[in-house]
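Standup, Tuesday
Yesterday: got the pipeline producing structure tokens again.
Today: sanity-check two examples.
Blockers: none.

Example 1:
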Amino acid sequence: MFSKDFFSQIQKQAIQDAIANAELNTSGEIRLHVDDKCSGEPISKAIETFEKLKMHETELRNGVLIYVAITDKKLAIIGDKGIDAVVAEDFWDDIKNKLIESFKVEKFTEGLVQAIEQSGIQLKSHFPFQSDDTNELSNDISFGADQSK
């Protein structure tokens, strides 16, 4: 199965709605990227994807990427420099661990929605929503394939 076909249209909409709702509480920007495969470490692929999606171009450098490789069952959650400068190194571990537990019981959409909601709550404490905030990044799920294998 290809990553772009992994979620139904209803599931995609639920994830996009979760992103939009999470961003109502924070100036942070959240994206989900789904790959078919990840031939290396997921954190490295997440960093590469983060740059390709130009997530480092947000004004406060407060973008978050949830990266998932379906076939290889790998994932990573990373934040931009603005987030990393103000949070503990293990900031994303709890969200990531809960996401892994959801994936183990094949609750992919539910786990991602919960991870996105929790990311929004976590971001709110450091990057609260401002009245002049704009949605700097698309709420759409991005899809791609690792072409190195």
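Example 2:
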Amino acid sequence: MVRPAEPPAFPTPRKPRSGGLLRLVLVFVLVGGALLAALAVFAPWGFFMGGRFHIMPTWQGWGRMHSNSAGGDYAIYVWFWPDSGRLRGLTYVKGNAMLCTPRGERFNLKLGGNFERPAGLDLNGKTASFYMYNRTVKHILSGGNARPELELRGRWNNPDLALDDHGSIQRNFDHDARLRTSVTGVPYLGEVSPVTLREGGKGDFEAACTAVKTR
């Protein structure tokens, strides 16, 4: 007995993926919105750093500083935002920084800091303190230490940050702008270099890097 031919099998149609992608985007939007809402409640000053409103609670700026004992001019760039993991203080920030030396070397740094508690949303005239250290993945894997370790201290002078390096450039770099292999015997507070950080982006910093390179 001859069996009747079976109907051809058709591939099962795939379900469109657009629904899953849309849900994923929605999750990111909701999480981001919740975080921004929390910062608006607990750290509203973050949206007004530098004296004007920012739609995102971040501030970025750049500056140049000079050190006779550390070989010349240095360019620095910072980018920071309220540290949402440390709401107890309400004025802590975290972020990243970059440093260019007169030798053309660049260092990518982690940044942390804090401000004097603002009067409402206004940080103008309030003290500011930042610390920066070398903690890139490449640096850690190579067994390097945390240097350069930089400090910047001063206050907001809207729209700028008027700071000094608390002697940290000369502690970390020698007279030829080379990163010191050891800071043993180096005075903790030697030459202090002032720096004004002006609001600006990476393009401003790149131009400053080119300008400070002398070797």
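Quick observation on example 2: Residues 27-32 have pLDDT under 50 and may be disordered. Residues 45-212 form one domain.
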